[in-house]
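Methods: example folding runs. The two proteins below were folded one after another, and each record is reproduced exactly as written to the output file, sequence line first and structure-token line second.
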Amino acid sequence: MDESEDPVASDERDTPDSAETHRITRLAIRAAREAGATALRGFRAPDLRVDVKTDIHDLVTEYDGACERRIRDLILTAYPDSTIVGEEEGASPGSGPLTWYIDPIDGTANFARGIAMWAVSIGVARDGELVSGVVYDPVSDHLFWADDRGAFLGDEPLRSRGFVEPSRATVALNFPLPRDLVHLPELALEQFVEVTRRFAQVRGLGSTCIALCWVAAGWIDATISFETNPWDVAAGSFIVRQAGGRYLSYRDGEVVPEARDYLGPHYYAAVAGGEFGILLEIMRTQSRRPLG
């Protein structure tokens, strides 16, 4: 990546802490772009091999592993004492302050079927506090990123503004998924019907990080999902908040305190001012499920 492509250019006014944060963001952008380029080589390839990871709804390809390994190599070359938590290779503890949360292909089921709705997601925490998030959609060449300067799409600032009345709003509803129908299935289906009736549009995107970034951009107005992992939401949740949107994590029917809530298992995100009561009620009831 040359300087003309770098949306996080150095600024002589940066404090040392800010300059270091921007170096982290620059590395995350480079890693996401390189992983995206690798994944594109397999996207819609006629010989792409798709395997089942945990069940028929959880797929994996050779590119998931290849992309994560490339990201890990870049991180550990620059910050060898980092902790890395990735979807494919798990956690690799380090002694330093940085933890990198990696989803090399968020939306693998889409990727595997040639559906252009997947992205690379990298979130970075320093001493547990998120400081940088990058989501790269290589098919559309959309680079979402955020750090202490705010949230951006490429070099354009993001503002999480949209419709706050359900009758005009679009919701990306990753619910009910098969795992949601294990718990309170009749209630889940009733709630889905109610959302479909109340909202102007309901969409299933199949990629957590894209849904969160689209909330940050104001392209959709809300999204919810259950039983997610930190690599799914670390980057996207940070981008939403830095864009001025709302992100809530739930556990046992209650909102998780904001500090480190990217570790929480269930989430709600909405554009600024988005108080969608039916979605919040779904979060309260469905987040009471047992985990593990």
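Second run, written to the same file directly after the first:
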Amino acid sequence: MKLTRRESKQRRRKRIRGKVFGSSDRPRLAVFRSNEHIYAQIIDDTQHHTLVAASTLEPDLKSTLASGANCEASAQVGKLIAARSLEKGITKVVFDRGGNLYHGRIKALAEAAREGGLDF
């Protein structure tokens, strides 16, 4: 039986979340991609607490971007999440791509976060 794209993504996400866990020393950088926007959060899974968040819906980013659904917007979110995490003293994270393939917008966000100073 062939799986739909949605079912494949759900299986990948479940498999990834079984292995990837954010701690206080190395929190989890979780990425969610919708058709129109991209969201990133740094989460401490031991305390169930979001430490830092950024998305294309923020007013300063939204006004400068033509679209929230391209690689340029993802790179801006990656730089923003890296800058905010460095302000809080977070340098090392575990990357959780949320079941998405490491390609396109997800890859652009990850590379921009690495350039911004995050280590993963």
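Comment on the second run: Residues 69 and 97 are 16 Å apart (CA to CA).
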